[in-house]
Amino acid sequence: MNTSLSTLLIYAKDMQRTARFYAENFGFATNYEVVDGLIELVAGDDGAGILIHQAAKSLKFGSAVLKLSFSVTDVDQFVATATAAGLKFGAIHRANGYAFANTKDPDGNSISVSSRKYRA
Question: pTM here?
Fold first, then answer.
């Protein structure tokens, strides 16, 4: 049996804001419509999709137990473009033939962009 990761579910304080964040900064397509309590975001390639779900008021945010990592061919260029559009990244780190940089989504979830997949 083959398996593949096809969908990530993200709990959000503000579903529309979080959906906009991923659509505007990482190129996901969405109509922002809430269906069955979820907003669906579709990746532009065959990457995993994202479902945004309303977080319960009792859910505690800020504890990192998962990090989303987006593969990009040129981290410097991606960070420069995203920064110009208003997304803040930490320093760009370089290690073993690839680069990565970190940011957070509106709910404090950790995100990185990394060229590790494309290293020589």
Answer: 0.84
